[in-house]
Design a protein that fits this description.
113 residues; mainly alpha; elongated
Amino acid sequence: ELQQKVEETELLKMELQMLETERVRLSLVEEKLMDVLQLLQQLRDLNISKRALGKILLSTLESCRDPQPGKAQLFEVLDTLQQELTACELLHRQPLEQAQSPRSLSNPLVISC
């Protein structure tokens, strides 16, 4: 009976550790999602077109088509979307001429807004 209690205790410790790991993962996803939502809000306030936002989203999804090994796909998509939105030139309030100048891109689907 004592051995059974020890085994149950070990099992509960493992479950608790798994729950804590999942809690931390969800916390990181929540933080990344909040960052992305803040960037989207800033772009909306700058009156970015729906078309430009759609291109950013499609570019993000295209670059995350093949998931990286060992990286959660949801987090990867959020991280890439945050990078795409952060790179949006409207957020840096550059003059219109600079915002429209072409830049060399490694991925033809990556756009600048």
